[in-house]
Amino acid sequence: MSHFELPALEFAPDALEPYIDKETMMIHHDKHHQTYVTNLNAALDKHPELKDNSLTDLIAHLDKVPEDIRTAVRNNGGGHYNHCFFWKVLIPGGSNKPTGALAEAIDKQLGGFEKFKEAFTNAATGQFGSGWAWLMVTKQNVLKVTNTPNQDSPLMDGATPLLGLDVWEHAYYLKYQNRRPEYVKNFFNVINWDFVSDVYNKTLDTEAVH
To answer: Which residues of the chain have pLDDT under 70?
Structure first.
């Protein structure tokens, strides 16, 4: 029984060129992401009692996942969640800069957009080996730029991801080879800030309810 499925891309594989090439997008989405989904489902098949758990629940509460599949869920569930999120933060043409509440928060908490961009770039280029760079909201409702190894997610620390960049080599190697800084720089041309701002606004609304 399959629990999770690969979501379709909301844009054509070549829509992000020249910043992210068509071949990379196709391999990244159709092969790498699919593998995480396949492996996650295989792990969950061993524990039918988890079939109603959402992906977010599984990732945010790994301590409740049976030990025999915990590593598989961490790696493959994390890979599935992170990639589903990554496709949503990408948009052809980008949407310039953050607006509204997120723009204000970046100004107040991170010293402005250029300082944020520098911190995010450092997190992405400074992640040793495979991993991700993130802009997230902590449990204390504070913006933070960080990175995580492998397919770990801010959800695992109780934080809410707003923007994520995949810095595994499979995300950029065909076009950029070892030039990760160039890939990171070009990522800023295809960010869907409307989506990122929307996630932030929903996080604020959730906090207000509590």
So the answer is: 1-2, 95, 206-210
Class of domain 100-209: alpha beta
CB atoms within 10 A of CB 68: 10
**Are 164 and 180 spatial neighbours (Cβ–Cβ below 8 Å)?**
no
Please give the single-letter amino acid code of residue 175. K
- Residue 196, H or E segment: helix 193-209
Decide the pairing of beta strands 143-149 and 131-137. Answer: antiparallel
Residue type, 178: N
All structural domains of the chain with their residue ranges:
22-89, 100-209
Contact between 165 and 178 (Cβ < 8 Å): no
In whole angstroms, give the CA distance from residue 93 to residue 15. Answer: 9
Architecture of domain 22-89: Orthogonal Bundle (1.10)
Question: Rounded CA gap, 207 and 39, in Å?
Answer: 34
Under a CB-based contact definition with an 8 Å cutoff, are residues 101 and 200 in contact? yes
Residue indicated by tokens 């994520």: 164
Q: Do residues 170 and 28 make contact, with C-beta atoms less than 8 angstroms apart?
A: yes
Interval 102-119: pLDDT, tens: 999 999 999 999 999 999
Going from the C-alpha of 96 to that of each of 19, 92, 190, 208, the distances in angstroms are 15, 11, 9, 28
